Amino acid sequence: MNAPTLTGPRWVTVRQHRRVLWALPAAVAVSLAVFAAARWQSTGTTTPYGSDPYGPLRDALGYGGLALLVLPLLVGAFVAGPMVARELESGTYRLALTQSSTPRAWLAAKITVAAVAVTACAVAFGLVHRFARTPLTTTYHYSWAEPGPYATLGTVLPAYCLLGVAVGAVVGQLVRRTIAAMAVTGLVTGLVMAALGAVRWSFVPARTVTGPLGNPYPYPPRDAFTTDFGLITSSGGRLPEWACTRSGSLEGCPAELNVTGQYVDYHSYADYWPTQSIETAVVLVLAALALWGAFAVLRTRHP
Fold this sequence. Notes:
Elements: H1 8-16, H2 18-44, H3 55-68, H4 71-90, H5 93-97, H6 103-133, H7 147-152, H8 156-175, H9 178-199, E1 207-212, E2 225-233, E3 238-240, E4 259-267, H10 272-301
């Protein structure tokens, strides 16, 4: 972000937090270097028979994706603490209000700078991950449905970052204590992410594949993400897989259970973008509500 092209409260905000703003593209550059090195190592070396040449790349993407799930929490905590609560706690925001700046412009500048910077950073991280995962698209043990890849390869990560910014803006004004505001914002953002992550695979109906008792077990397509599996009764009911374990084998299920087959519920990759779209829309609505709440609190305390 080029500070000389900015004016008023936005320029002040960029100057105040320029180190953090520079740290974001630096983190993207470091991740690109790490993934490029892991990709080169995976495709440019000879490995013994039976070993996994993509192991380093897969590990880097797995840990990197999980680390990025913390980004919305960190962004929200930073907005709530150093950007909003610290100025309210110390009273330095009054200086901005004496420089022909309104309270609304003061808060809007902080939200805008944080939102633009973190959205650009999240999109850049997603592009880096897409570049790095190209050799893994035809291999096993790298699922698009795992939390890390699911978030980084789609649109939900930028949406959660915007939610963190909005939650930080409202919590920072309500709590007005730097450390406490950071903790509350991280907790709230994390709870929203956990709640939506727990129900995201119910947004789109799952597909089902069935088969008879015994082997072979009914397998979904290769790129599928399994959400549930178990036994089917003659009436069409479902039982957990362990319902017949006492008999020692599926073929030996007690007759009173009336088990006739097995089932597997799954989502194919075709469900990825519909699920992403629904979750992104929900998160953006929550972010908009939090943003409205931030300016509502501002109007209450600075009419």
